[in-house]
Amino acid sequence: MRTIFGIPDSTAHFLDSVSSPWIRRKNSYGIEADFHKGVTGEEFSILSLHSLYVSFPGAMVENLGRLNFGALLKSLLSMERFWEAHEIMEIPWRKSSDPLLYHGFIRILVSQVKWQMDQKTLVSGVLNQGIDEITASTGLKREDILQKVDYPVLFKSNFLDRLLSGAETNI
């Protein structure tokens, strides 16, 4: 089962001794260690001791509903968990009559993941593609969508409310 651990910088050095394969994503507090093939019981115990949080994305998506969608997305954004936010946004994107809006939002989230994975040459291109898609879909301008463009991006609350209102009907 896929498991993600949020590890603070102060204890991240121990990750070098973990044998299970994982993907590193940096953020403001340290490292997000994504064990996409799971971890052993012993490693889980050790990782849990050093973690700020443990997440099971598969279970999160399975238990997603209209009542908790908005709160979950906002929580993921505030915790800089852009990969998981991207994953749950794929649900309304696939069901929407306005997929360009959601695809643009997903692209912005992916740009943040690219930053976290230190693929900085891709960040601005993917970010701008996302903004262009949202603009084409809604007529909004860049300044109507984003409050802050540097990592981590911050979305304008009016835009996020509009996005969530439509997304929740497509869950």
Sequence-ordered SSE layout with sheet pairings:
Elements: E1 3-8, E2 23-26, E3 30-35, H1 41-50, E4 53-55, H2 57-62, H3 66-78, H4 82-95, H5 99-116, H6 120-138, H7 142-145, E5 146-148, E6 154-155, H8 157-169
Antiparallel strand pairs: 1-3, 1-4, 2-3, 5-6
Q: How is this structure best described in words?
A:
The protein has 171 residues and is α+β, with helices and mostly antiparallel strands. It contains eight helices and six strands; from the N terminus they run E-E-E-H-E-H-H-H-H-H-H-E-E-H. The strands form two sheets. A four-stranded antiparallel β-sheet has the order 2-3-1-4. It has a two-stranded antiparallel ribbon with strand order 5-6. A hairpin with a 5-residue loop joins strand 5 and strand 6 (154-155).
Structural class: alpha+beta
The number of distinct helices, counting runs of at least 4 residues, comes to: 8
Return Rg in Å. 17 Å
Chain oligomer state? single chain
Which band does the percent of strand residues land in? 5-15%
Task: Tell me roughly what share of residues is in helical segments.
Answer: 55-70%
The 3D shape can be described as globular
How many domains make up the coordinates?
Answer: 2
Main β-sheet: number of strands, strand sense, barrel status? 4 strands, antiparallel
- How is the largest sheet built, in terms of strand order? 2-3-1-4
- The N- to C-terminal Cα distance equals 24 Å
Q: What is the tally of beta strands?
A: 6
Can you tell me the residue ranges where pLDDT is under 50 for at least 5 consecutive residues? none
Mean pLDDT: 89
What is the string of helix and strand elements? EEEHEHHHHHHEEH
